[in-house]
Amino acid sequence: MTKLLSVKDLRVGFGRDPKANEVVKGVSFDLDAGETLAIVGESGSGKSVTALSINRLVDFGGGRITSGSIALTRSDGSVLDVRTAEERILRSVRGHDVGMIFQEPMTSLNPVHTVGDQIEEAFRLSKGLTGSQARAATLDVLQRVRIPDAQSRLGYYPHQLSGGMRQRIMIAMALAASPRLLIADEPTTALDVTVQAQIMALLAELRAETGMAMIFITHDIGLVAGIADRIMVMQNGVAVEQDLADRVLDHPQHDYTKHLLRAVPHFTAGKSVRAAEEGKPARNPIVTVDDLVVRFPVGKGWLKPKGAIHAVDGVSFDLVPGETLAIVGESGCGKSTTARALLGLNTITRGRIVAGTGHSRRPVQMVFQDPFASLNPRLNVEALLAEPAIANGQRLDTDLRKRMAFLLDRVGLPQDALTRYPHQFSGGQRQRLCIARALMLNPDVVVLDEAVSALDVSVQARVLDLLIDLQKEFGLAYLFISHDMAVVERIAHRIAVMFAGQVVEIGDARSVLSEPQHSYTRRLIAAVPAVERRRQHFTVDMTQVPSLVRPPGFEPPAAQWREAGEDHRVRIEEIA
């Protein structure tokens, strides 16, 4: 039987001498119709370059296929060697035979055209549909990717949709040409766990409906465990292991595959929560947040706004030295707005943020998600570390340099790092620099806003271990914001679950994860992908987050709470 795709000894290089700068080194694999291959590996392993070579999109990024063959069986039964094909032929292959979904939908969609127009364009180019036929096909494909209220969404622009919705639009555009092979390059990395589960379920259903093959690229083995038929593991441009998914997951043969599986944070529903420290921290809060309300005016009426976004509504919690409070929830739930209010970056509408008694208020510091964007590329490490101290009135003297050397050692970076620049470090090392910089002023509280979500799993594990060690050494209080429940389980002592601007459940991490009481907390936990859950089917939960835009003067009813155990409270849900 002819394979849908057969890649033999693929080699791809970049630069003026691509053979001397190979990033894909002799990769071979086959793919049958209807089969899903997961290509797994860390940043720089060559997985995305391999995928981009299949339809020669790598040509537009300065890459060149130096040797090997890519045999693609087209819908008419002919076999095309993609490597030697002319560009005019490739234009008919892209979209029609091979569809593509990229990681960041906002950069893939045109911001000045409605999503309806963009999908119609895909139908016009691939199938020649125009007018009412194109509009009907667009509506149909939006319904297939489970876009609610599809008719009205046709007129939306990309910025008016959530990240999950935009990713569904990208899938709809890819499906417009009915491709026989769909390549999904990290399509869910930036999405929240519930939206991620929805997209995975959708892809599994579409594969069953249409019989298309898929290549799924990711660094998260747990994510592909429920959808992949075969797994290929890549390291440094080489396919080090490939086999049926269950064999790779249950009996990995290569040391690197074993390393990847060990590094994946395994979610255990509260069984792996951090043990309480000896002499558990006394509940003397370093910071108390009391009935925090943050609202943003929206729309323009006569002399006053037409309403407000209730970004944070009545949030209360304590931060205790030596303890981590994790805030979890979907994008838009108010996690980051709460953190920014704690730092004084957002104006508080109502409520209080006060330092605990008996403590001198030291600066709250923050570590952001993207370390490269957080570091000035024109400054070397010495200048970057000195910056917060100098801004705080200190001088660049011997004591300050000793502090830099001490912190570099504590975060596992060499002393010669002081003279280097951000681009000379890996992603994990840059995040360590951001952590060292946050500690320069000896803060009581460090806010970590998705601080490990952009890192590869093994780097992520090392950074989490570092954070735990630093917390024990300096008695730091962490406010840890994340959508990754497995990571939260590994680092948190306490958890606050946010939904639509409000905390709906808060308490001891083990109790919240093992006995979730609120329906939203249960949804979050049910959506966590895991190697151990691969035999359960993905399910689509289409519950929509309510709009946070309220009319002027609107005040939500006072929250009603019930105790669910020692240090575990849950908000009583309103009956619809």
Automatic annotation (TrEMBL):
Primary localization class, coarse: membrane
Keywords associated with the record: ATP-binding, Cell membrane, Membrane, Nucleotide-binding, Transport
Membrane protein topology class: Peripheral membrane protein
Record's subcellular location: Cell inner membrane
One Gene Ontology molecular-function label: ATP binding
Coiled coil: none
Keyword Transport among UniProt keywords: yes
Family to which this protein belongs: Belongs to the ABC transporter superfamily.
Name listed for the protein in its UniProt record: ABC transporter ATP-binding protein
Organism: Devosia rhizoryzae
